[in-house]
Amino acid sequence: MREGSLKLRPYLDDVGVMIGLEIHVQLNKLNTKIFCGCPLDYHDDEPNTHTCPVCLGLPGSLPVINRKSVEYSIKVGLALNCTIEEHTQFYRKNYYYPDLPKGFQITQYDYPIASNGYINIEGEDGEVRIRINRAHMEEDPGRLVHEGGSIERSKYTFIDYNRSGVALLEIVTEPDLRSPKEARRFLDKLRNILGYLDVVDTTLEGSMRVDANISLAGGSRSEVKNISSHKGAERALLFEIIRQKNLLRRGGKVVQETRHFDEARGVTVSLRTKEEAHDYRYFPEADLGPIRVADWAPGIQETLPELPDARRMRFVSNYSITDDHARSLTSEKQVADFYEQVAAEVDSKLAAVWIADVLKGELNYRDIGIDAFSSEYMVALVKLVAGDKISEQSGVEVIRTILDEGGNPDEVVAAKGLLKAGGDIVTTAVVEVIEENPQAVEDYRSGKPEAVNFLTGQVMKKTRGRADAKEVREMIIQRI
Ligand SMILES: [Zn+2]
Fold first, then answer.
1. C-alpha to C-alpha distance for 383 and 354, rounded to whole angstroms
2. Residue 32 Cα, ligand 1 centroid: separation in angstroms?
């Protein structure tokens, strides 16, 4: 834990970095929006085609809570080690913004669905616990599309209400993060957990949107809004630290403000300098009564899958693999499932090396998922290498070929002639080469050791490179 750590964090620790995150997670695996029956699967459809009076906020329309959205939110809350209270309540948060036509957002205020949790992450110097203040449910507003692609340059703005009313879970951390890298690791870990829970498709655009609060040395904090990628969050925070640090060094003062991250330029720009004292006039959403969720939680707790941390520890003890390998293999549920299928058939340590070190690297390089490779192929491949039928180098070539051109391991090995030559073939070749080259044999015997290189080369030629050159060399020396 952080308290026990004495190691200084170079560069960042001297300025007392404090980072807190608010992550808007779209529960996009639901079939419908949070308060109406509009379908969620809108990403390929025309703007404003998935709307109804409820999600457009037309007068007189009444929201009806999507029961599954509550279940999913409790599920996430429990996975984040939160407390689920007796009951939860929705509020109206009143403000006007064009993406919110009814003039208020239905959200939670007191009585959020989940509170007081935590996630452990790999910090700069060991495992650290990042506290979760709360997770609350709310509706997503519509989406503003700025003509020309940028807030500053656009002359006008479109509004797409397809997103309006999608269930969001806003996860709010305490300011426990100490560096941009930790923030990114936190986000990655959160994404992994959400993936295990199967409540969010994190590959969809806008499925995880991040607001980051950052302050140095206990000074005022700036808030960077609406960062859409984990890498973007890391870059935005790094930029903010340097900006605030330079400001302080020049004797300036960090003002509390809201900033926007310009992904293309890698800079944050001020949106609103003086945060107006918000009076949202929260009041309970009278159209949705309090929901008693205390009885739901135990049943949902039972449906929780084994989560990444628990699975990692089990991998280390069950399969005798390193913590690094286990961490890599459990970072995505599909990869962990894949590994377990392979490890059931072949040596678990060898399987870990081939999947974590080789296959994952090749997949990352091509930016594709584990489903591009079958676990049966991996079993076959590990068997080929373990049985000394192909070299490790050939094993890598087999994986690359399958990913790029298709085929299965046996086909690729046959087509590329990767099978190591069997002992008999090599022995025969050695005998033949010695017979066919008496002059070289004579040279070696009369004190010219380099003659053996020539003979080795001849054997390699005869076996079309499938013999082990070092072994061949020794076999020749033994025989002459
Ligand atoms: Zn609707």
1. 11
2. 8
